[in-house]
């Protein structure tokens, strides 16, 4: 194994406990990052881990770890929503566990030049995969209404219109520090406020640029497709928008969605068989972890076990063998 990762993965013991990796098994780490979960899974004896990350820097970082694993670790430079296709191309039809740690990694946040954080001034980038539209491209070219919608829906920002108006008036914007100051001024920030208002704007723009919520939805469906009967899923989220998607997905796929009433009949009373069964309640970090790893404060873990039922499609019907995604 390599030297310690530059950050501590949150809820590590709880994730490993939910996954229960065992010798001979194949697992997917859909969000490799600095490799914390992958190393723990390998240390428990899993025969193979396929580690996905769309960030080329994360893949490059993982090469040293892969070199020590005797072929047990395969790094996959791709989005986790494409895990079914990527695994199939490598001759793998099903796996025993999938873990997803959603959102931006500590490695990305700590590098000012990546533009994810306003803690250090850097170029307004925010692209996880180093390709496509940057945050600066979006903020300097989108109209005011679109920017306001992004801030409201992805950042749950109550002053979205006011901030969007200030952003458009200040264009062009090239640096994270400049954006943070524009947002603070528009939001009426003053020292002593519990939360810097720039946090919500940076979150919203990052989610939009990287299509994070759509990627999460695709990743959950992909996990459903690749997990074999009895396979385990563990998902760690960091804010309510992400957790809501995971909770809704597992509730639906476990057959826990409420049935209809005489006032509101069920949309599909004879729906497909449940593909997951939930494993316990949502888990959050304890006091000991919060003291040593503040990033864990907003983390929520949800876990589930795959049944033998056929995977659903996005529209709720069982997926047919050989059907394309």
Describe the structure.
Helix 1 (12-19) crosses helix 2 and helix 9 (176-187) crosses helix 10. Helix 3 links the parallel strand 2 and strand 3. Strands 1, 2, 3, 4, 5, 6, 7 and 8 form an 8-stranded mixed sheet that branches. This protein has 2 domains: 12-106 and 212-259 and 266-306, Rossmann fold; 107-210, Orthogonal Bundle (DNA polymerase, domain 1), CATH 1.10.150.170. 44% of the residues are buried. It is α/β, with parallel strands linked by helices and 325 residues long. Helices cover 40% and strands 13% of the residues. The model is unreliable at 1-5, 259-264 and 315-325 (pLDDT under 50). The chain has 13 helices and 8 strands. It has helices spanning 12-19, 36-43, 56-67, 83-88, 106-110, 135-141, 144-155, 160-170, 176-187, 198-210, 212-226, 240-253, 287-292; strands at residues 26-29, 48-52, 73-76, 95-101, 227-237, 276-278, 283-284, 300-306.
Topology:
Layout: H1 12-19, E1 26-29, H2 36-43, E2 48-52, H3 56-67, E3 73-76, H4 83-88, E4 95-101, H5 106-110, H6 135-141, H7 144-155, H8 160-170, H9 176-187, H10 198-210, H11 212-226, E5 227-237, H12 240-253, E6 276-278, E7 283-284, H13 287-292, E8 300-306
Parallel strand pairs: 1-2, 1-4, 2-3, 4-5
Antiparallel strand pairs: 5-8, 6-8, 7-8
């Amino acid at each position: 194994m390599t030297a310690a990762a530059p950050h501590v993965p949150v809820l590590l013991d709880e994730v490993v406990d939910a996954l229960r990796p065992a010798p001979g098994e194949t697992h997917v780490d859909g969000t490799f990052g600095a490799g914390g979960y992958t190393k723990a899974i390998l240390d428990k004896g899993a025969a193979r881990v396929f580690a996905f990350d769309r960030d080329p820097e994360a893949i490059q970082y993982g090469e040293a770890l892969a070199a020590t694993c005797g072929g047990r670790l395969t790094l996959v430079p791709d989005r986790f929503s494409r895990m079914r296709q990527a695994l199939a191309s490598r001759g793998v039809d099903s796996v025993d566990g999938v873990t997803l740690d959603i959102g931006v990694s500590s490695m990305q946040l700590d590098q000012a030049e990546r533009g994810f954080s306003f803690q250090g001034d850097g170029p307004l980038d925010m692209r996880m995969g180093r390709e496509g539209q940057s945050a600066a491209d979006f903020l300097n070219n989108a109209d005011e209404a679109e920017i306001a919608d992004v801030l409201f829906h992805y950042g749950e920002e109550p002053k979205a219109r006011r901030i969007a108006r200030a952003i458009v008036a200040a264009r062009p914007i090239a640096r994270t520090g400049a954006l943070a100051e524009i947002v603070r001024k528009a939001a009426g920030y003053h020292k002593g406020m519990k939360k810097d208002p720039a946090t919500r704007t940076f979150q919203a723009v990052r989610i939009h640029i990287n299509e994070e919520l759509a990627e999460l939805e695709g990743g959950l469906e992909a996990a459903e497709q690749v997990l074999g009967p009895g396979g385990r899923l563990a998902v760690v989220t960091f804010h309510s928008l992400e957790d809501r998607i995971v909770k809704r997905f597992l509730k639906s796929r476990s057959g826990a969605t409420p049935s209809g009433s005489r006032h509101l009949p069920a949309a599909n009373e004879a729906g497909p068989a449940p593909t997951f069964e939930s494993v316990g309640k949502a888990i959050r970090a304890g006091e000991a972890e919060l003291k040593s790893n503040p990033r864990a404060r907003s983390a929520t873990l949800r876990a589930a076990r795959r049944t033998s039922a056929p995977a659903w499609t996005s529209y709720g019907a069982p997926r047919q063998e050989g059907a394309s995604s």
